[in-house]
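INFO  loader      accepted 1 record
INFO  loader      residues=47
INFO  predictor   begin
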Amino acid sequence: MIDFSWKIFSQTGNIETYLLMKELETVYDKDVTKRMDEDITELDTHL
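INFO  predictor   done
INFO  writer      dumping tokens
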């Protein structure tokens, strides 16, 4: 989805599309961090 937003922005120059892409990146980064934290917690409980 982020790649799609970038492609649209690069073709149109629409700033709202760029802002959408940045918002998606933020949500994605938070999701990845949450998953990593969950994985670490799971590993800790198995030790």
